[in-house]
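Hi V.,

Quick status before I head out on leave. The structure for the redesign project is tokenized and pasted below; the design run finished overnight.
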């Protein structure tokens, strides 16, 4: 397949969208700790949002739109290939006609959301221990305790409770 052409789940754009935007959203929680201090914790899943706009044109412009709309209706997830970007497993969330079919031209907007396969389990690189020991974290995240001990050499005993301590898990 041509790496310069956008595609999704077997649908191939005849002409790439004129605008593509990829957002990398972040979400943080602020935990207040004693003595007027706080710690920021990254709690985002880091799912990218891919949006854009373009034009379908030609005698089959409406059929081009309908073919993409079918994937939206099926709530299908799959590989989204965008020129010069690594492939993204995504789901189409929104598809909108922004200008009517005039002279075989339809203007449209779309939004994709990065999706994860059914067997995907998100595990952050670090967690903040809240009165937990390494054994608790290993059990909660289904991670080998030996791996946690190696990743966290400053923790001398895996059975000691840690409070507001950052623990590496990957």
């Amino acid at each position: 397949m041509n790496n310069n052409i956008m595609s999704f789940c077997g649908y191939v754009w005849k002409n790439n969208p004129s605008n593509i935007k990829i957002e990398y959203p972040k979400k943080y929680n602020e935990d207040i700790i004693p003595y007027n201090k706080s710690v920021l914790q990254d709690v985002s899943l880091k799912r990218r949002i891919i949006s854009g706009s373009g034009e379908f044109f030609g005698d089959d412009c409406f059929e081009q739109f309908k073919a993409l709309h079918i994937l939206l209706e099926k709530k299908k997830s799959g590989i989204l290939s965008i020129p010069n970007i690594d492939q993204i497993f995504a789901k189409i969330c929104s598809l909108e006609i922004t200008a009517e079919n005039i002279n075989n031209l339809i203007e449209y907007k779309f939004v994709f959301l990065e999706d994860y396969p059914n067997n995907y389990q998100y595990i952050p690189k670090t967690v903040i221990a809240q009165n937990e020991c390494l054994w608790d974290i290993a059990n909660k995240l289904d991670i080998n305790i030996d791996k946690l001990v190696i990743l966290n050499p400053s923790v001398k005993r895996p059975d000691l409770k840690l409070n507001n301590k950052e623990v590496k898990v990957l």
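Above is the designed sequence. The mean pLDDT is 84.

G. will cover questions while I'm gone.

Best,
W.
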